[in-house]
Amino acid sequence: MRDFILEILNLVQNTMDDEVLSDELSQYHASDIADSFDELTDEEIRRLYDILPSEFLADIITYIEEKERYLDLMENEDVADILDNMESNDAAEVLEELDEEDILEINQLVEPETLEDINLINSYDDNELGSVMSTDYIEIKADLTIKQAMKAVINSANEVENINVIYVTDEVGKYVGIITLRDLIRARSTDLLEDIIKTNYPTLYDYSLLDEIDHDILDYELESYGVLDRRGLLIGIVNDETLIELVEEEYKEDYAMLAGISEIEDTTEPIYKSVLARLPWLAFLLVIGLLVSLLTSSFEKVILELTTVVFFQSLILGMAGNTGTQSLAVTISKLNDDEKKIGKVIKRELITGFLNGLIIAVIAFGLVIGFLLLRNEGVSASLKTALSVSISLIISMSIAAFLGAFVPYVLSKLKVDPAVASGPFITTINDIVAIIIYYSLASLLFTIL
Length: 449
What we know:
Radius of gyration: 30 Å
Largest sheet: 3 strands, mixed
Distance between the termini: 70 Å
Strand order of the largest sheet: 1-2-3
Helix content: 55-70%
Number of strands: 6
Shape: elongated
């Protein structure tokens, strides 16, 4: 694969003519130019600011993570010009990177429409969909003719990035549906606009919480989705890239909590921050571990009399924990589905856990009894221990699968992030249940057989 960044660096450092450099750089993707900024000097970056069009600079800045550093190399007038050429949600994000004094000045410099859009987006809480929507889209009225609609699209094409999905509203701005650019181009001038409007396409609401958006909406594979307010008025859109980023971010957070980390770590941060992020969960697990140990000690009499039973405690706990984690991972990914689907998921996980437990139990029975006979533990003791292990595996793995599916569902209903229930909570419950089942069953079998 070509090293685009190296090519860009060579162009910037070896092309003296500004016009030639601007033309050459316009052939590269804005993301590659953004990546090259880390290798450029401040003087070289300022040169690019002077020669590249504001529209192209706006795209480049969008791809830069540490925006503040590079915005500080610009005059506020230039920053305002770039904001005017950005999608409204990106512009709002850029403003958050600036000092309060600069923000006040830039607010006076940007176009009124830009400031209005930014203020609208900033009016939402960070966990609401409205905070990440864009107000850059093509909107036409439902009473237009095909010819009028085409003219409206052409007039708006230079102002928005996404022109493939055209949003249709009524006379008061209520959402009616969408028209694809392809359908509009293919329509005849004698056709009616209402005949090509798709009225049953998915939409989202501005007040929706980001972590509760149904991930299945991405199955439609649209470039963007309309965002409505409580009155049904179209007030913005969310493009598919934004939704994908939100889903990826949620999965990262869930994975961090599954691992017992309070938040996603930045590997560039100081080590002490990583320590502080992980320490609370480790301390919590230490306390929980002591409670499990105390529970185990309550079966001291059984342990002293049946020493071979202790050999397989970790096996029971490990299999229950693994089963619960598998069930948890499946359930969290399905929590945005309707309740009937969740009920099916819980039932399916319970059956899966039971069947897996049954198969593992049969395998474990043979391995345990073979191991104990090799140690000359005696046929009777070996048989009783193998039965204790096998039956405990079936019961504990079934319960673990059920809890792994049921507990996060309950927490989601209580408005608690289900990922929090993952590692420590589910593992602890499974450990306690498995210990009680295993030692109680062993005591019972060795007493009655």
